[in-house]
Structure formats: structure tokens, C-alpha cells
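ok new one. same drill as before - C-alpha cells go in, u give me an amino acid for every spot. 502 of them this time. try not to just spam alanines like last time pls lmao
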């Protein structure tokens, strides 16, 4: 501490300086640590940002040089040309389909009001320019009173040649020769990752083209589509309302699918579009043009998928194929020797991945054709030949009929009914039979007495006369008796309720 002595005091001397306390080493260390921390916190991100920026700049420069080289080799132009040429080839054959439907008068209108005009729109593709045939979706033209096809600036009234609700395919025809048509491609050659283009009229924007890749092939078993026969190509090419019925094409400009649906929470594009494969669509279209209706191939079996835990016990390395659960007596499979428990692995030399694949492949096989079927039985593979028959009309319409009293009928009801009648025992959900108003809970005891005006007494008669009487537009009329004997008339199927049958 500085001292003050009045004897030694010099008034001219400067005042004494206070003594500075010694700087402690710990304080210096803390200061250095804080400075280092500040450098880490603020300096490293800055340096990283500068390094990252220079890296991105370097990549951009390298990319520009690579693009310049590719452009010099015209690879970019040639790649773009593939999309341009494919769409140019097909666009002139893509049409807008417009429909008009007059609905009934409002509920409660006793004066016979005019009703309401409902308009719809979709897309289509010309597949035969000489005869004016256009392919679209069944749901695009369903219940339409008038169909108009717009091709470029021209409009044509269209006639419905026929449609198939269970594959969602319809064929229209316009008068006169059209300028262009689109060729079919082979959907069996399509693979995941292939580039595809979707062309159509989303929101009535004619001939819009979107690009994407194939996300999956052979997509089926989707519950959203009920009893549709499903063989979809899944794509991320943008498909929106109005695209339905338009073509999905490959880069050769060939139609490999008919755009039909999207999976979406919003109703708009979310990256999952579905197109009916050309392998299925083309065969349905050809039958409609040739026969006016679809005649499906029939095996006569009920089937199910193989569960993963069952594969090994069945002699399979992986869960694939379709297991036979039941065989229709006297049907094609029964005559070929198929038995419950057999697992179908191939049909007509085509692999069967699951039950949906077997159903879809079977319906397109030619009637009366003998096809090889590979099965797994008792741990070993066998090969049998099956002669494909036409699917019974009633089964195709979703109606299950048996001769004789159903076993589940209560005794008090069974005693009041004929023992050898033709009884309705089942209705397939979503089928034409279900849409006719048949409630599965109310069918016990319903007995078929006639097809149209023709009485029937056996299952064979029923199927024969139903096949002869069925008209794709007018449907099939069945005379049915209720439990109390009340006669009822059922009309199953039919795309035009006002059409007259044969």
C-alpha cells in the first residue's frame, strides 16, 4: 500500500500512482478459452459456408462443361426428341370425349319436371381410323344419353359399340374415316423404370402430355376398384380428372395402357396413376368390336392367395401362385383333374403371381382353347391341359345360383319351398347383380322361374338361355319368385336401360 509522509511531501511532485494488482493466470486462461469458443462458433460455420459455396460453384461449372459437351454431341437434343416424337406420333389420335345425360325430375316433383342435364368429360384414343373406332373408359360414358367426340377443331356424334364395366373399357364409333390412329404396344415388355407419356384432356385441356416412369406393373387386388379385373400399370406421370380413357404410351409412340384412375386423398394428382395394360385392354376391345360383348374365359375354380407362412409347407420358395379352394363339378378345371389344394403357378406358359393374375389371365384366353397349366401338388410340380370355356353369363353378372334348397334356410322356410328350384345363393359385391338392388341379406328363398319369357327348371337350361338372351346394352331379365310367391322382375347389367333385348 502507498504511504504519505507530510515531512517528505513535495508540492511540485506528481501524485503517486496506485499499485496495479498482479494479473492472475486463471483469468488469462478463461479469456483465451472464450476467444477460442467464439472462433469455433462464428468462424467455422463461416468457413464451412465459404467452402460449401466454392464446392457448389465448382459443381455448377463442372455441370455446365458436361452439358456443353453433351450438347456438342447432341445427346440432349436427341433425348428430348424421343419424348417429342413419341407424343407427336400419337397426339393426332387422342380425342376429347364429352357426354350428356338427362337425369329424372327432382324428388317430389309430381308434375313430370324436365329433370337436370348432367355433363361429363374424359379422353379417348383412335385405334382404327378407317372404321372410326375410339377406345375410352366405361365410366366416362356410363349412362350417357349423348356422346360427342372432339378431334382437334372437329366434333362428331359417337355411337357406343359396347362397354365392359368389369374392365372399365368402352368402344365408340364415329362416322367417316379419321386422319390418324395410335398403334397398340406390348405391355408385357414394359418394365419398372421405363419412361412413359400420358396424353389426354385433363380439365378439358386437349392433348396435354405429361411424362413419368413406370412405378409398377401387374398392379391388382386394389379394394378401391371392387370386382374389376385388374391389370394396371402404375405410373407417376401426372394423371388428373379428364385424363380417363386417354392413352399411356412408351417412347416408341405405342399405346401400352389406357389411363383409368388415380389414387389420391385430394382427387387430384399425387403421383400414383393407374392405366389398364394394353395386354388386357386390347383383347377386350377386339371382342367388343367383333362380338358386341365380352366373352370371358372360365376355369371353374375358386382361388386365394398364398400366405407367406404357408409357402414352405406347400413346397414353394416364396409365396406365389393361386391356391385352388374349390372346383366346380363338371367345369374345365374339374375335367382336367385339378383338385382343392393345388397351387396354380402358370397358365398358358405365363407366370401366375397371385389369384388376381390368374383371374385376369384366364378371362382373356380364347374359348375352347386347350392351355397348359402348371400346378404344385404334394410338393412337386405337375402339368395338365385345361380346355377353356366361356364364363356363364350369370356368374359374370355376379349372381350365384344353385339347384335345390340352400342348406342355410331355416326349416320353417324350407318346408314351404320346392326342393328342386333354382335358388339365388349369393351376390358378388360391386357386381351388376348387386347394383340391380339385390340385397345379399334378403336373397334366401328367392327362386328363378324364367329368363325373360322362357321358363327354366335346371341349371343347364338357365345358363344356356341366359347366354342366348343376354344383351350387353339391355342386360338380362330374370323372373324371380319371392318367399310368399310374389313375382318379381330383375334386370341385371346393361349399359342402356332403354335398349331392347333380343
Amino acid at each position: 500500500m502507498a504511504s504519505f509522509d507530510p515531512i517528505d511531501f513535495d508540492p511540485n511532485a506528481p501524485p503517486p500512482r496506485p499499485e496495479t494488482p498482479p494479473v492472475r493466470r486463471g483469468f488469462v486462461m478463461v479469456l483465451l478459452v472464450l476467444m477460442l469458443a467464439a472462433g469455433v462458433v462464428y468462424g467455422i460455420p463461416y468457413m464451412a459456408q465459404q467452402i460449401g459455396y466454392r464446392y457448389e460453384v465448382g459443381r455448377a461449372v463442372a455441370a455446365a462443361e458436361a452439358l456443353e459437351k453433351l450438347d456438342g454431341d447432341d445427346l440432349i437434343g436427341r433425348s428430348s426428341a424421343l419424348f417429342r416424337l413419341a407424343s407427336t406420333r400419337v397426339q393426332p389420335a387422342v380425342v376429347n370425349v364429352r357426354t350428356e345425360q338427362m337425369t329424372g325430375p327432382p324428388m317430389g316433383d309430381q308434375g313430370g319436371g324436365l329433370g337436370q342435364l348432367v355433363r361429363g368429360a374424359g379422353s379417348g384414343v383412335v385405334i382404327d381410323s378407317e372404321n372410326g373406332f375410339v377406345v375410352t373408359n366405361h365410366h366416362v360414358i356410363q349412362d350417357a344419353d349423348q356422346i360427342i367426340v372432339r378431334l382437334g377443331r372437329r366434333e362428331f356424334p359417337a355411337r357406343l359399340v359396347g362397354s365392359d364395366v368389369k374392365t372399365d373399357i368402352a368402344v365408340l364409333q364415329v362416322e367417316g374415316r379419321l386422319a390418324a390412329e395410335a398403334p397398340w404396344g406390348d405391355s408385357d415388355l414394359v418394365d419398372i423404370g421405363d419412361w412413359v407419356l400420358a396424353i389426354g384432356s385433363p380439365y378439358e385441356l386437349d392433348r396435354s402430355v405429361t411424362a413419368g416412369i413406370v412405378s409398377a406393373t401387374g398392379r391388382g387386388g386394389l379394394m378401391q376398384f371392387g370386382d374389376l379385373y385388374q391389370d394396371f400399370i402404375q405410373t407417376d406421370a401426372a394423371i388428373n380428372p379428364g385424363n380417363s380413357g386417354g392413352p399411356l404410351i412408351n417412347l416408341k409412340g405405342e399405346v401400352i395402357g389406357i389411363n383409368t384412375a388415380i389414387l389420391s386423398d385430394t382427387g387430384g394428382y399425387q403421383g400414383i396413376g393407374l392405366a389398364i395394360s394394353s395386354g388386357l385392354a386390347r383383347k377386350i376391345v377386339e371382342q367388343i368390336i367383333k362380338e358386341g360383348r365380352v366373352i370371358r374365359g372360365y376355369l371353374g375354380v375358386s382361388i386365394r392367395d398364398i400366405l407367406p407362412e404357408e409357402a414352405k409347407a406347400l413346397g414353394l420358395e416364396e409365396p406365389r401362385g393361386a391356391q385352388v379352394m374349390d372346383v366346380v363339378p363338371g367345369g374345365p378345371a374339374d375335367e382336367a383333374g385339378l383338385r382343392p389344394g393345388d397351387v396354380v403357378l402358370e397358365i398358358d406358359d405365363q407366370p401366375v403371381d397371385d389369384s388376381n393374375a390368374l383371374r385376369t389371365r384366364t378371362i382373356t384366353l380364347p374359348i375352347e382353347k386347350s392351355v397348359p397349366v402348371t400346378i404344385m401338388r404334394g410338393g412337386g410340380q405337375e402339368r395338365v391341359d385345361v380346355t377353356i370355356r366361356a364364363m356363364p353369363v350369370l356368374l359374370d353378372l355376379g349372381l350365384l345360383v344353385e339347384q335345390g334348397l340352400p342348406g342355410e334356410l331355416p326349416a320353417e322356410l324350407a318346408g314351404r319351398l320346392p326342393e328342386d328350384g333354382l335358388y339365388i345363393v349369393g351376390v358378388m359385391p360391386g357386381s351388376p347383380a348387386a347394383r340391380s338392388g339385390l340385397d345379399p341379406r334378403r336373397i334366401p328363398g328367392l327362386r328363378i322361374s324364367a329368363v325373360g319369357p322362357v321358363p327354366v327348371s335346371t341349371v343347364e337350361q338357365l345358363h344356356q338361355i341366359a347366354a342366348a338372351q343376354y344383351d350387353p346394352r339391355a342386360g338380362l331379365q330374370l323372373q324371380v319368385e319371392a318367399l310368399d310367391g310374389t313375382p318379381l322382375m330383375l334386370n341385371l347389367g346393361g349399359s342402356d336401360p332403354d335398349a331392347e333385348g333380343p
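The chain has a mean pLDDT of 84. and btw The first helix runs from residue 25 to 72.
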